[in-house]
Amino acid sequence: MKYRLSDIANIVGGSLVGCDLEVTAVATDSRSYAITPDTLFVAMQGVNHDAHNHILEVEERGVRAFLVEREVALSNDCGAVVVENSLAALQALATHNRREFNGNVVAITGSNGKTTVKEWIAQCTPSEVKIFRSPRSYNSQLGVALSLLMLDNSYDVAIIEAGISQNGEMERLRAMIEPDMVIFSSIGDAHAQS
């Protein structure tokens, strides 16, 4: 991933405020150890949290680029893309990044065993094939978006986990992943109706 904030604003339909900075990584958790000056911090609101409340803290750690749902006070050397919904914007950016990927994308889904199957495939693939695989169990609406934003054309194949917990989620994941191939690890009672 490598984007200027103005490009992100165009891709996700947001408004750029402040400096037009280049970003190469994404963070959604203010406690993350992986935050660097070229990180895009995505502030999301949930039922019990509002990451906008941690922007000053993240800025003090060196982050200068933000994706936010409302305008926030920032230093003069910072920039932000203001959107209606940060998760939806992050997913739109992830979809764009996936479309820029020239390799094959394999989605793995099922009621259980997704991570095991993903790791098994990666271990069985010949070493000359460069594989990207979603980290840990990044298979949610947020995790899939973060995984797709790690993709670049140095990889030949991407293996992306896709998990659901509510009706309708798989369609949103499919739209982001746009898989060339899908592997079902298993379908249990929990997902028989989804």
Description:
- With 194 residues, the chain is an alpha/beta fold.
- Helix content is 30%, strand content 22%.
- It is built from 6 helices and 11 strands.
- The strands form 3 sheets. Strands 2-7-6-5-4 form a 5-stranded mixed sheet, covered by helices on one side.
- Strand 9, helix 5 and strand 10 (157-162) form a beta-alpha-beta unit.
- The chain is globular.
- The chain starts with a strand and ends in a 10-residue tail after the last strand.
- The relative contact order is 0.15.
- The mean pLDDT is 94.
Which helices and strands occur, and which strands form pairs?
Elements: E1 3-4, H1 5-12, E2 15-18, E3 22-23, E4 25-27, E5 39-42, H2 55-60, E6 65-68, E7 79-82, H3 86-100, E8 104-109, H4 114-124, E9 131-133, H5 141-149, E10 157-162, H6 169-177, E11 181-184
Parallel strand pairs: 4-5, 5-6, 6-7, 8-10, 8-11, 9-10
Antiparallel strand pairs: 1-3, 2-7
